[in-house]
Design brief:
This protein has about 200 residues and is α+β, with helices and mostly antiparallel strands. Helix content is about 35%, strand content about 25%. The protein has two domains: about 140 residues, Immunoglobulin-like (Sandwich); about 45 residues. About 5% of the residues have low confidence.
Length: about 200
């Protein structure tokens, strides 16, 4: 009988990793296949074994991306930002401490990690501010003034009002022309009758 090592937390992390990728793909499309995002310029960490949890918030001027990276020194983080994606990678090193009786349980994530996050809008990637406090990495990403995905809302009532104003202006112009034509005709008739 063979004995199999079962690591439920690693299996859960793998499932979470797959669900994060699926969610990102559903929200932003399959960016690796379509090439719509500039993620291809972000270096991939091939031996990444886990991903930090993230949260994205929006203010009037910025996207705020936060990632949970407890126990990781800032020097061990590698952050890449493009106009529409962020990559957070690094290594969480296990402390080399010898315990007399060993470790009973460990739920910490050790090893290399990477999280590539497609952004919901373009950002000014050269103006990003970053800070790390209490194991939370916070990136402040200024929104780009030039959006690739601009949406214009058409107000048909305004177009209708503009068309009505143009029609009224044309009718007014025609009325002026008719008035001038009739006056000119009346003057011609009056001058020709006075000469006879």
């Amino acid at each position: 009988m063979s004995q199999r090592n079962w690591h439920p937390l690693k299996n859960i992390d793998t499932l979470r990793h797959q669900m994060n990728n699926l969610f990102d793909e559903l929200v932003h499309g399959n960016t690796e296949k379509t090439g719509l995002h500039s993620q291809s310029s972000i270096p991939k960490v091939e031996n990444a074994t886990w991903q930090p949890a993230i949260e994205i918030k929006e203010t009037n001027t910025n996207l705020i991306l936060q990632a949970q990276v407890p126990g990781i020194e800032p020097k061990d983080l590698d952050i890449h930002v493009t106009k529409d994606a962020v990559s957070i990678s690094g290594e969480h090193k296990e402390q080399k401490v010898h315990y007399e009786k060993g470790v009973y349980r460990s739920e910490f994530n050790y090893g290399y990690f990477q999280r590539i996050v497609p952004l919901p809008m373009c950002v000014e990637y050269k103006q990003v501010a970053a800070e790390i406090h209490n194991g939370i990495l916070t990136l402040s990403l200024p929104k780009s003034r030039v959006q690739n995905h601009d949406v214009l809302k058409l107000d048909l009532s305004m177009q209708e009002k503009a068309r009505e104003a143009m029609v009224q202006q044309r009718q007014h112009q025609e009325h002026i022309e008719e008035t001038m034509h009739s006056r000119t005709q009346a003057e011609i008739n009056a001058s020709s009758s006075s000469t006879t």
